[in-house]
Write a structure and sequence with these properties.
The protein has 158 residues and is mostly helical. It folds into 2 domains: 15-108, no CATH class; 126-154, no CATH class. It is built from 8 helices and 5 strands. The chain has helices at residues 2-9, 29-39, 42-47, 67-72, 85-97, 127-138, 141-144, 151-154, and strands at residues 51-53, 55-57, 60-62, 78-80, 106-108. The strands form 2 sheets. Strands 1-4-5 form a 3-stranded parallel sheet, with no helix packed on it. It is globular and about 50 Å long. The model is unreliable at 1-15 (pLDDT under 50).
């Protein structure tokens, strides 16, 4: 009987008391965040605000000397311009599997300023962006920025 009960409880037992609250997806997000922040050192909190940039060499994507050690120490929150899926995955696995708190990295790319793009930037073809550009071109600047004497119309500008 105990064996059957143990087998039935196995999925629920995956997150035991030894599992940190912040890693338990069944916990409310507020409780998970509070638990994680309580476990973080000041250096790790500052590290989450740190964005390193990746480089590209003739041999492919690279990262500067010491950056990998900083990632493993939880001193990095994001990587800018990490080229290629394999390289990005390698950095992410390092952050998730080789750090004390297993916090994933954020990745960003300088697409607007020319990261392997030419004008027009593909995101400017999106319908929402085109609509916003067209709307902005039709309205006087004073109305778009909310500086207007028309109190009725100004209240509708978000």
């Amino acid at each position: 009987m105990m064996l059957i009960l143990g087998i039935l409880m196995l999925p629920a037992g995956l997150y035991t008391q030894s599992t940190p609250i912040y890693l338990d997806p069944k916990q409310p997000i507020e409780r998970r965040v509070e638990d994680l922040l309580g476990r973080m050192t000041l250096e790790e909190k500052v590290g989450q605000l740190t964005l390193y940039t990746s480089d590209y060499d003739v041999t492919g994507p690279t990262i500067r000397e010491g950056y990998k050690d900083d990632i493993k120490a939880g001193k990095v929150g994001g990587i800018f311009n990490a080229f290629g899926a394999d390289y990005t995955r390698k950095l992410q696995e390092m952050a998730v599997k080789e750090t004390r708190l297993n916090i994933p990295l954020l990745f960003g790319y300088d697409v607007i300023h020319g990261h392997k793009t030419i004008f027009p930037v593909p995101s400017f073809k999106a319908p929402a962006v085109l609509f916003t550009i067209k709307l902005a071109s039709l309205l006087p600047l004073s109305i778009v920025t909310g500086i207007t004497s028309d109190a009725v119309f100004a209240g509708t500008v978000v």
